[in-house]
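User: Structure please.
Assistant: Input sequence and predicted structure:
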Amino acid sequence: MPQLNPNPWFFIMLISWLTLSLIIQPKLTSFLSTNPPSNKPQTIPSTSPWTWPWT
């Protein structure tokens, strides 16, 4: 059964992994974030209780 022979598939997996790690990943990580975080002060939400009309 050819699908049980790991020899060609292991080589394909290894080449794919090296391509991803050495070529594609540095290109992807070189992009800058298009929306950098801002230094706005954090607003605390109002936590007043809700008054239910039937209680």
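The chain is about 45% helix and 0% strand.
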